[in-house]
Amino acid sequence: MYHPCLVPRDSHGSIVNKDHNHRHHVSNSTDTMSCQRFSLVNCQQRPQPQAPCEYMENQCRSGDTNCKPCSQRLPSCVGRPDGNIPVIGQYWSSDYLICLRNRTISVTKCQTGLFDPVNRRCTLLIDFSNIVSICKANPTLKFENQQNCAQYYDCSKPSTGYLVECKYPDLYSTVYQGCRNYRDVTCGKRPEPQAPCEYSQNLCRQGDTTCKPCPERHPSCVGLPDGRNAILQWTDHYVVCLKNRTMSTGRCTSGVFNPVERLCIVYLHPGDLLKYCQNNPDGIIASSLNAAQYFDCSKYSSPNGHYLMECPYPQLFSTVSHRCEEFVTVTPDKRPIPQAPCEYLQYQCKSKDLTCTPCEKVHHSCIGVPNGDQAITYRKWQAQYVRCFQNRTLEEKVCQHGLFDPVKKTCSDTVNTDQIDVYCLQHPHAVVKHPGDCALYYNCSNPTSQYGRYIEECHYPELFSSLTLRCEHFGNVVCKPRHEPQAPCK
Q: Which SUPFAM superfamilies match (predicted)?
């Protein structure tokens, strides 16, 4: 700074020469009456400013709240040696000063690495001997490890060798001088660890033979998409990833983790069977195609096909207990549910067995049939009948006496008049007693009888025997509960 009293003035006191383009290491020369480099100026008895902040041009203007204080922008070199020196309070940072005769010639940054305050030059490496000396001089200092973005040096912790590591997956922030979430930290040229095993805290201690290797405890997500991913192919273990970080590991509560669909599954598509069994030689898992079928990786030579097993009819395979259970205890899911006996492989004819009777002719379906004893749909008035429950054929039964009445739902040797057409359709040559008259009977081969459809009459006084199925002497026939006619006119 210079004052008008140091400059020539005219008779009115006006300044003859004025220069506003001076800088903080430039002083006013009384010889030239202009700002000159400080080394060229003799200030004599004038106070000589040396620090940048002693120059008004470097001070913040009044009311400018966005202005960074001068001392932070332009540190002083007063009392400090000439040459390259560290900024006070910023040891081992990229910033440093160039000083000359107490003047701050330049505030600059290392192009690469940090400024070594001991050797007073930029360096990429910090050796431990320097750290010890730094921390002795600065017992509360913290600064980053240039070789690892998750580590830093804390001079208040000599017990750790001053080296401290952030908890995975945090990183060290040079802005906040502490560990922060990895998403909030810019590592710059510091190597950025991502996998758990790139953090020393997760490694086995030397000599610990009981320690399971880190990759087995903490799988890596580096290179994997966000979300759940398989740890080992086709097992129940998975890892949850985010931005190459291992956020957590998990295990399917049931079933196995599908590495393609990236979710836990409780039933398997046959196309994935070989891969599954290669990784699970004793594995058992439901088939996605049939709720009564499952795969057993220990049964390669199953008669149903490689590894394919089937529950006994009408059981289903439970994805919870991993075994066959009664169908009423198995919760329905997306698997197709077989219900009829012939929907089970165990009742199907083998392809090369030419003597096998087709299943549909032997076993009968209850699909769409009410619960309880029921006539076979396409074979009514037969001795055979079925017991149904929730579309399943629980039992195939045979009447000990008579035939199964599809209306009364019981075995009977009597055919009601309203059922005779159905009965005779199934038994076109049958002869059967009339339900109400002991002298009448049905003859299915005579639909146009004079007495009514299929009805014929014994010659008087004979009666129809339900035992011999023909007309007999009345003394040899038991009519009850049928009506027994006695008079000729009846």
A: Invertebrate chitin-binding proteins
